[in-house]
Write a structure and sequence with these properties.
binds zinc ion; mainly alpha; two-stranded antiparallel sheet; single chain; 2 domains; about 190 residues; about 60% helix; elongated
């Protein structure tokens, strides 16, 4: 079996945990022994390339599995097989960023409900919505166009905020799952 530790290499004191250790990595915390080679431009470029390709491979693999096999990543996560995938929260935040950019590019209203929709495509509380709009127009003494513009601007911001509220909710789901309540996990992750 090959040994990655040259015999002439003396022990070193780990700068992170203080453990006296041998080899390329700290036996206690895994910190790498720093050598002159670590400060070379070649190593710097290698690390950039490695970080990008590793992140990309994890991200692309995770995205593909979320789309192609709903629930598969959840099972992998709870089975403890996590190193090949991006962390759930990282994926969630990444998708949120993509979603925000897509809103500016495509002017989509996936998670927003414009005022016209509230009034004309509302099967649940159309009378209430109309009364609220009429009341607001009278109180603020503004035109419907002005109210609609203000409302749609606010609802777009509010919808993004509400999506971020999903982060602690998801955290609770994963926490519950770690105590054995795996039914709380989302089927898409
Ligand atoms: Zn250490």
């Amino acid at each position: 079996m090959l040994n990655d530790r040259p015999p002439s290499r003396p022990p070193f004191t780990c700068p992170s945990c203080g453990t006296q250790t041998e080899g390329k990595y700290c036996s206690n915390c895994g910190e790498k022994r720093i050598t002159d080679e670590d400060y070379s431009i070649r190593r710097y470029l290698e690390e950039i390339f490695s970080a990008i390709t590793l992140l990309e491979s994890k991200l692309l693999r995770s995205l593909w599995l979320v789309a192609s096999k709903p629930g598969y990543l959840s099972r992998e996560y709870f089975a403890g097989r996590r190193v090949r995938y991006i962390k759930p929260l990282q994926l969630f935040i990444f998708l949120n960023v993509v979603y925000y950019f897509s809103l500016t590019v495509f002017t989509a209203t996936t998670f927003t409900t414009p005022l016209a929709t509230q009034l004309h495509m509302n099967n649940y509380y159309p009378g209430y919505a109309s009364r609220r709009v009429d009341h607001k127009l009278q109180v603020d003494k503004i035109s419907y166009a002005t109210l609609e513009s203000k409302y749609n601007g606010k609802t777009a911001i509010l919808s993004k905020t509400l999506i971020f509220l999903l982060i602690p909710i998801l955290h609770c789901c994963f926490s519950c799952s770690s105590f054995g309540i795996e039914s709380f996990s989302l089927s898409t992750w």
